[in-house]
Amino acid sequence: MPFYHTLGHIAPKRHTQFEKPPGPNGTGGLYYEQLFGTIGFEGMSSLLYHIHRPTMVKAVLESVETAPRVAVEKNMLSRKLIGFELPPSPSDFLESRVPLLVNRDVTLGLAAPTGSMTNYFYKNADADELLFIHRGSGRLRTLLGTIPFEYGDYLIIPRGMIYQIEFDPITQPRLLYLESHSPIYTPKRYRNQFGQLLEHSPFCERDIKRPQHLETHDETGDFLIKIKKQSALHSLVYATHPFDVVGWDGYNFPYGFSIFNFEPITGRVHQPPPVHQTFQTDAFVVCSFCPRLYDYHPKAIPAPYNHSNIDSDEVIYYVDGDFMSRNDIAPGHITLHPGGIPHGPHPGAMERSIGKKETQEYAVMVDTFRPLMLTEDALTLDDGAYYQSWME
Ligand SMILES: [Fe+2]
């Protein structure tokens, strides 16, 4: 996140001796400093202070291939995937992830876990992750602190963060997730030259849930970290607890943002999708469709016009409420409108929208600049008929 945050205790000056409190035998020694950044030494970074060296690999165990199995490489059909038909998985968040739509920049999938990650930690060394919490609540525990989450939260986890996800036991989690090979940022046009979100941005720093409650474990033993790199999941055993940070500061940290805090931009006539933009990368954008008043020109048509997103594939994940431009859409559905052919409101939707004053819809849209491929799992959720649903 392009602002400064700090938790715990840090040295008064960077790269200088930072002494541990004296133990029973006199000196406590020095804390171990780690610079943790992305994009070499050019991107956002944080400076961490560990009790133990963060480099103590004890053993390297098995590696498991996790590359998605692609079923349709060149897709030209509009698709509707019935997301909630994905059965709950008797496993945790990592094990339950099912990739559905992929290209070389991004993987988009669903997860319906029933358990929490307990006996290991996870790090994605390939990609920034975006999680959208559709059902359930819990805590994202990271080496930089904990972020409680609930329905409607986006969680942005920069690559390399070591984390665990705990769900509250009575909730039945449903998540949309993205793995992005380029960093996930807030839209540049909403930031000034110093990185501050501008007045016309639909959200501001106050809406960002930053990590709190830094956990510091001074423990030695066997600590398993599953590290995703080059699509393989490598299992490394470390000699110390990965959450042994006593303090950190900087700009590189995970954060949350609730879709309920997105303030929609409206107009006299229909506003295009960029007004809903919430995140950007080099390869796709993420937009939040939220309850809002409709256009107020006396002859306005609130439903969108047909449009040819010739240069991008458009994915919409339907969260809640009525989605005004589509027929037969329910929470958990995913539509894919491939680039190359136009799409638009379903028959009757344009007429139905005229005179309406507001919408209660919630949806997350992902527009990728390169075409998406469908996995074998995606085909099991595909209704198979959506591409003809604009016929009279
Ligand atoms: Fe569209």
UniProtKB/TrEMBL annotation:
Keywords, A to Z, come to: Dioxygenase, Iron, Metal-binding, Oxidoreductase
Q: Which residues form the Homogentisate 1,2-dioxygenase N-terminal domain?
A: 30-257
Entry annotated with the keyword Oxidoreductase: yes
Question: Which InterPro entries is this protein grouped with?
Answer: HgmA_N, Homogentis_dOase, RmlC_Cupin_sf
**Name assigned to this protein:** Homogentisate 1,2-dioxygenase
Native species of this protein? Larkinella bovis
